[in-house]
Amino acid sequence: MLKNDLVLRAAKGLDVERTPVWLMRQAGRVLPEYRATRAKAKNFIDFVKNPELACEVTIQPVDILGVDAAIIFSDILVIPEAMGLPYQMIEAKGPWFEHTVKNKADIDKLKIAEAGDLDYAMKALSLTKKHLDNRVPLIGFAGAPWTLFAYMIEGSGSKTFSKAKQFLYTQPELAHQLLEKITQSNINYLKGQVAAGADMLQLFDSWACVLSESMYYEFSLQYISKICDALSPLVPITVFAKDAHYAIPKIAETSCNSIGLDWTIDPATARQQAGNKTLQGNADPCLLYADAEKIISEAEKMLRAFGKQRYICNLGHGLYPDLDKQKVKLFVDVVKEYKW
Amino acid sequence: MLKNDLVLRAAKGLDVERTPVWLMRQAGRVLPEYRATRAKAKNFIDFVKNPELACEVTIQPVDILGVDAAIIFSDILVIPEAMGLPYQMIEAKGPWFEHTVKNKADIDKLKIAEAGDLDYAMKALSLTKKHLDNRVPLIGFAGAPWTLFAYMIEGSGSKTFSKAKQFLYTQPELAHQLLEKITQSNINYLKGQVAAGADMLQLFDSWACVLSESMYYEFSLQYISKICDALSPLVPITVFAKDAHYAIPKIAETSCNSIGLDWTIDPATARQQAGNKTLQGNADPCLLYADAEKIISEAEKMLRAFGKQRYICNLGHGLYPDLDKQKVKLFVDVVKEYKW
User: Fold this and answer.
1) Could you give the number of structural domains in chain A?
2) Is residue B1 a part of any domain in this protein?
3) Candidate from B160, B215, B284 with C-beta closest to A320
4) Which of these is catalytic: A5, A34, A68, A75?
5) Which of A60, A136, A334, B105 is most buried (CB neighbours < 10 A)?
């Protein structure tokens, strides 16, 4: 039995006595403790694949920041790797794939990943679940199929992801074949995460922003919907489609439980569009550069705008590494101490 | 007297017999002819500052693609430079400023640019106006104050512009001082452009996307509005705030004539929100990677969605350098030949 199940109750639409809060990238460089653990690994990939180190950094923000959930430390690109496309994380640059997907033969060569192919992730989850000792829920996650597809075609980050989009425009049938394989891999992976101890799941569609509305529904949301159908009977699931402002009503039609919002979305508009789904978000991470007074007033304004129920407080994107840990803690405290 | 004034008539809300079309970055690397002219200059800055070369590439798309307007070849960062912050354009990386703005002293040191400080731009405009021989209107442009501010603080491109935003959150009064100086410089510059021959103007707010709605109104739109008030009595003006999906109703309250849209915006929604303003946009540049059949059907769908009047056809962002010139031409032809 979880001692603090606020995040799960909020996700399911059950009453909460106060607003739960966690922060994207809370297990990250904003904590000196994270940087110390990170230094023990040779490189980022080794770090991700080390269950003991992943467990350590996952629990740090629960101890240090007092957040209401832990999110397993990992990377969305473990799925392309498990499918047969290894990558490197290049300092100050981001991910880089030696091989990318160009044609049908490349797609046929990729395997549908099984949870067993990501044994290190399963170990990290079960170890973390054990060490968390039921203090707060453990959130698992995966990249949404379109976002993973974008990296697998493009081979790295991109401002426009024009190569990945070119693939959609010129080879839509092949694109669907690859998206289907990624979707099946994601379902296997996320079911494994639940079996290993994840109490809740989040899908990150980080590159939703580059697609038009009709392309988004065809090449992204239908696959997200399939994953939600497979997982939501097991645990609550959040869909975070960054900058897909137009898509909230359609995301609300999937079987997800909660919808993540970036900071360009007005809370009242999102409430109107999201039906009975729980909302998660959406403070601008840069707010945490401001002074205490501004952080407090803006956080409280946001809480009032979203309301007490069906709401999980978070940022609209991950924490930036150069934010001050004390200000991050202040934000968490303001949310937890808010008097409704 | 202009032989083809379709773009101006559409911008002013006057009747047109067919949809006018031009393309952002039409004077650019998508044309082999542009690359040949570009090769004559030592570097990008020298290219921008050479009126003869700028004139040459500005007119190329009118001759080659048959677009209904020319847009002067230049760069939005000429204003920071004229204010006292020189920059370099680094191949495959983008702009880079040796000095950035950090404090009040840095802001006080910057001058308010006068049109005369950008003599090369004025010469390029008057030369182009002459060589265009009134075939089509000549569009001038500037970066919106927030976008220029973002570069002047950050010193380069950025995924998050977190330094520039940190400045807004921590030193809002200083931010307004700098934004005011940029706004005055822009007004001087744009008035000079009109005097030198620009028939119309466009403001590019390329980094609108990183601001929340309330921050956007405070730190960007009020300055855009001031520029529109100063310039719209002279010539029509378009505001293009990329990815500021929430801002269309407020942009419609400024004295601009037309509103540029990116491809995440639904035409019907934009029509509802934009009052009697003309709309410009919003094809996904990646559509031009598709086959001819798809380009034709999507372009025609877009034309029907926007309607015949108060509409200037364009992309939702600039042309990508690796697009096929023939497909770009096809898109232009489809728009021009559409039977209403």
Assistant:
1) 1
2) no
3) B160
4) A75
5) A136
